[in-house]
Amino acid sequence: MIPHLSERALILAPHGRDAQVASAILAEASIRCFASPSLDTLVAGMEAGAGFALVTEESLLEASLRPLSDWLEAQPEWSDFPFILVTRRGGIERNPASARLLAVLGNVTFLERPFHPTTLVSLAKSALRGRRRQYEARARLAALYDSEQRFRAAVQAVQGVLWTNNAQGEMEGEQADWAGLTGQDTADSAGFGWVKALHPDDVQPTLAAWEKARAEQRIFKFEHRLRTRDGAWRTFSVRAIPAFDRGGQIREWVGVHTDVTDQRATEQSLRDLTATLEQRVIEEAAAREDATTKLHEAQKLETIGQLTGGVAHDFNNLLMPITGALDMLQRRFGGDDERAARLITNALQSAERAKILVQRLLGFARRQSLETQAVELAALLDGMRDLIKSSVGPTIVLRAEFPADLPQVLADPHQLELAILNLCVNARDAMPKGGTLVIELSSMASAPTPDLPGTGYVRIAVTDTGMGMDRETLARAVEPFFSTKETGRGTGLGLSMVHGLAGQLGGHFAIDSTPGVGTRVELWLPVTASAPLALRRDADDGRVPTPARPLDVLLVDDEQLVRDGTAAMLRELGHGVVEASGAGEALEKLRDGLSVDLVVTDYKMPRMDGAELARHLRLSRPDLPVLLITGYSGHAEGTRGLARLGKPFRQADIAMAIEELVQPKQMQTVPASGAA
């Protein structure tokens, strides 16, 4: 229908002047007109749009009404097209022939000739008013249809299932969407049959919520489980809106079921993930805090180690003239004065204890010089069994568990023996009333921590059944000078030395303890297939080797006291000594023509150290032996291949070192005069 034609008048009056007169009257009343020359033209005009049609009786009686009847039958539901039928003798009562026309036209108003213009205009306006009401009904139907389509589209957009119930909540009539969802037919879902599709646990909660919404006349919102037509249980969100009548009472409910199974599963997964993430964050935070604590502890121990190493180096230099002087005094005067000999011996023993203390400090600081070689741990511990038994006493039960075919490890056997003995003595002190001490060896394929190489290891575990340590004590167990023993029963360096030795050997140290249960200490050492060359041992029996011949020695040391004491030792051995206070002075003397058989030099000196001096001499005098003496017992750079003697040393030590260096095959030894 063309909108601007919707209120025009169509006129079918092919005979006489009816069409012309009617058009003039309607035009006068501002009603547009169109005169149709035939019935077919009239039908086409009605299809295009019109408010009503004025037709004469004779024009219809003379023509076939089939096209008109077909159009009227096919008009939309809202349409009831109005006709004004002009007759000669009025309505059906006076004109029976018009009855057939009434049956075809339907909505007819009769106008009898001759008609007054006012009557025609009145009938025309009445027909237009009726047609306008039809147009309004059309608009309302269109709006209702559009609303319904929008609603259905919205339901489909959220993948919802649409249904209706009466005011009491009973399902009535055909519910196609509900049937498609649940498989229930009309008979199954009628009344409250729809609840049979609900999960048994959800029936009563659903009905209770429904009754409450009905009583309060508000929107029903709920969530429950339904069995779908394929037999699966799925979760649906339900929303039903009440429709009210004019009296304000609920007429029916229009509801939608929306499948939220996947959404709820996703939400649950997110909740689980959130909980997992929270736990992971807590664990990561704890791990980070633990790593930070360990880092701070490692940094603290490293700082203490650096300080300890420096102090030990200086302490060695301080001990050197003391030890040398006491050694010379003992040999010179010890045989003449018993009291003096006893005092000197006590002083030497104290100096020796100080030397051991320094060695332990260096062990903690990982700066001691190690004589590493391949060690069979089972054999080493078997050889220590009697020593350990005598050290721990008769109240301690010793158990040793050594499997066969353990691989060799790379270690300094003497330092390792000392470390194991320290652990056993600590275990003894933790069991004052007796107990059990277990020493275990086991082969481990992987590294104990990620920062160590993944090669093989042998683990030494020393376990006691003693008092154990609490967390605070355990945290400080490897700190130097920390001890829980009473004064005089320990220096607090035992575990520190073992901890430092493990790190210096490329291994791992671990300790675990429980108060009242005991303590377990583990020492992991790397496996080796071969051993490096063993280093020279210092003399420890006080016997002084007799020099094969007197030597001219260039002695280089920046410490005056150390240089004086060392020079005195050398001269007493029969050697000639030329002193230099530094490497530069020594090189200058040699360039000036000084001829010597041996250079004895300190390592740590300002501007040029002993290793650099040795490299210069190797270029100019490659046949000149060099003995490096040092209070710094670490891995000194550039000292590879050089003979070394650690401070403090006694006369026998330096005598043996010199003889091994210049004439290793011609050495003889004689007892030191007055040796303790």
UniProtKB/TrEMBL annotation:
4-aspartylphosphate found at: D602
Key words of the record: Phosphoprotein
Residue span, PAC domain: 220-272
Enzyme Commission code(s) on record: 2.7.13.3
Domain Response regulatory, residue spans: 552-662
Pfam families: HATPase_c, HisKA, PAS_3, Response_reg
CDD domains per the UniProt record, alphabetical: HisKA, PAS
InterPro entries in the record: CheY-like_superfamily, HATPase_C_sf, HATPase_dom, His_kinase_dom, HisK_dim/P_dom, HisK_dim/P_sf, PAC, PAS
SUPFAM superfamilies reported in the protein's UniProt record: ATPase domain of HSP90 chaperone/DNA topoisomerase II/histidine kinase, CheY-like, Homodimeric domain of signal transducing histidine kinase, PYP-like sensor domain (PAS domain)
Superkingdom, taxonomy of origin: Bacteria
Stored PROSITE patterns: HIS_KIN, PAC, RESPONSE_REGULATORY
Reaction it catalyzes: ATP + protein L-histidine = ADP + protein N-phospho-L-histidine
Protein name: histidine kinase
Taxonomic classification: Bacteria, Pseudomonadati, Pseudomonadota, Gammaproteobacteria, Lysobacterales
